[in-house]
Amino acid sequence: MKAHYLNSYQPLSLAACYLPLIFLLITLITGCSTTAVDTRIHYWEKETSANLPIGSTKLQAQDFFRARGAELKCCVSAPPGPSYHLMIERKVGHHFLMEYDVVVLVEISSAEKVTSISVQRWGVGL
Question: What are the alphabetically sorted keywords of the record (predicted)?
Answer without folding.
Answer: Membrane, Transmembrane, Transmembrane helix
